[in-house]
Design a protein that fits this description.
The chain is an alpha+beta fold. The protein has helices at residues 18-28, 33-41, 48-64, 122-138; strands at residues 4-14, 73-81, 85-90, 96-101, 104-113.
């Protein structure tokens, strides 16, 4: 059987809270890439788009590495905390209330089977020699 290979893709600095992104990530974890993309097309959450883009990026990386796109499966999908921007909101009587704009990092690992490599054009040469033999016999 062919050997399974793993390929990664990162989406860093996504301007969504990690808690919200991880809810959507749990829907497609440990599924095939084709199933995950169909599911993410029908999820009505804003965090579905960055996860879909990360999966598509991992798929493109895998096909570039020589893996068969039909056998790809999501082996790891993790959402971690990204940078936080500290901001202030004006409040009454000259005060300012602090808050943080959260971001998240998405890691997608995809594994699949390598495509079988095409053999050189040896059968074409055999066909040519067979044609030459037929011509000699017909003379």
């Amino acid at each position: 059987m062919a050997e399974s290979t793993t390929v990664r893709a990162y989406a860093k600095g996504v301007d969504l809270a990690p808690r919200k992104v991880s809810i959507v990530a749990s829907l497609v974890r440990n599924r095939t890439v084709a199933d995950a993309l169909v599911i993410l097309d029908h999820v009505p959450r804003r965090s579905a788009l960055p996860i879909k883009k990360a999966i598509q990026s991992a798929t493109a990386n895998a096909t570039e590495a020589g893996l068969d796109s039909k056998t790809l499966k999501i082996t790891k999908l993790s959402v971690t905390v990204g940078k936080r921007l500290k901001r202030f909101k004006p409040h009454m009587r000259g005060m300012a209330l602090p808050f943080q704009k959260k971001s998240s990092n998405i890691l997608v690992e995809v594994s699949g089977v390598e495509k079988p490599k095409k053999k050189p054009a040896a059968p074409a040469k055999k066909a040519e020699t067979a044609e030459k033999a037929d011509k000699k016999e017909s003379k």
